[in-house]
Amino acid sequence: MNTKILFRSLILILFCVVKTNAQEVLTVEDAVKIALENNYEIKIASNNLRIDKTNVSPGNAGMLPKATATIVDANGIQNISQTRSDGTVTKLDNAKNNSFNYGVGLDWTIFDGFRMFAKMDQLKELQKLGEAQLKLTIITKISDVNATYFDLVQQQQQLSALDSTIVISNQRLALAQNRFTIGKASKLEVLNAQVDLNTDKVALLRQKELFANTKIMLNQILSRDATIDFKVVEVIVVDDKLVLSELNTLAEKQNPQLEAQIINKNVAELQLKQIKAARYPTVKLNTAYNFSESQSSLGFTTQSSSRGLNYGFSASLNLFDGFAQNRNEKISQIQIDNSKIAYEQQNLALHSQLAASYQTYLTNLELIALEEKNEVIAKQNLNITLDKFKIGTITTLEFRTAQLNYVNAKVRNSNAQFQAKLSEIALKELAGTITF
């Protein structure tokens, strides 16, 4: 009999060990790393940046010549009638005419009013814009990972608080049953204790459901199997050293949205340069080497062939286009003005968000200190109340009030830490300094 009990105990221990090992302890750093490797939005933004990099080339800017190979084979069968100057008439039915031409040509724009150089600079700015958009996607995703991760930590802390209150409720029920057995309490006290215990169990089940669903949400953000189970760390550490002036300075240099507005202004200015280039002449070089053969069934020449090099240049200058040039330049200048306004608007919004988020951050730091004290006081009050309840000097209602006050204090403390962490994440996201 003892051997069977020992064997079952070993099996139970082994099962618990396997289950524990199956749950990896996922740190927030590991979560961010997985998101950067797997997240679909980041992959799409990375591919868009690769497109922008590929577009940055002299050929795309129009700096390189264009070489074209051509081949034309033309054949015809016609009924021909020719009347010469001396009145002689020549006729031929089903006359065949063949023409075969092929060659290689090269065209090169050597001057276009510096449009090609402005285009090249614009392509480089668009690459920078792609980098800013990728950075924004990464920062946003890291922020989402951090917020969801520490939401799990908070919920885990609340699960712990509910577990502890169920332990206390079980103790209360046992005491009530003992007191009822020896005739020192009524059945009503036992029933009330049972109802409160069941209420605590319902709250625990709801919290477990929320915890499991948030795990699924984090797995989705990490772009991995939603059923992967894991553990999170037990505490939330808040950086309480953030300074608003430093955050403002960093945001002006590193915030990707503000950076994108600066790039958009540069792109608009380069677009104006390309439009102004139309006021200058366009000079092109061209050359070609062609082969030509032709045959005709009727005429003075029945067969001919030629081959040789052609070369030259062309120049064109727009003299009048119905004032379209002036109109295009005015529109482009307005777009530059709009880009400046958009930058100022984004800059103002950024500093306003920083100021508001920083005030929330400071308030949450104060709430952490206050809620920590409240939890300590509530714990002391519960211990004293529990001792008095055991000796029967207080009512069950007073004990339940003390119990709920302790649970609520723990939950508020956990929530205060979480809200402060969210404020920290928001500030670092705005400043562009959130850890990659």
From TrEMBL:
The keyword Zinc does not apply. InterPro entries: OMP_efflux, TolC-like. Residues 1-22 form the signal peptide. It holds the Pfam family OEP. It comes from the Bacteria. SUPFAM superfamilies: Outer membrane efflux proteins (OEP). It is found in: Cell outer membrane. Keywords: Cell outer membrane, Membrane, Signal, Transmembrane, Transmembrane beta strand, Transport. The keyword NAD does not apply. Belongs to the outer membrane factor (OMF) (TC 1.B.17) family. This is TolC family protein. It comes from Flavobacterium zhoui.
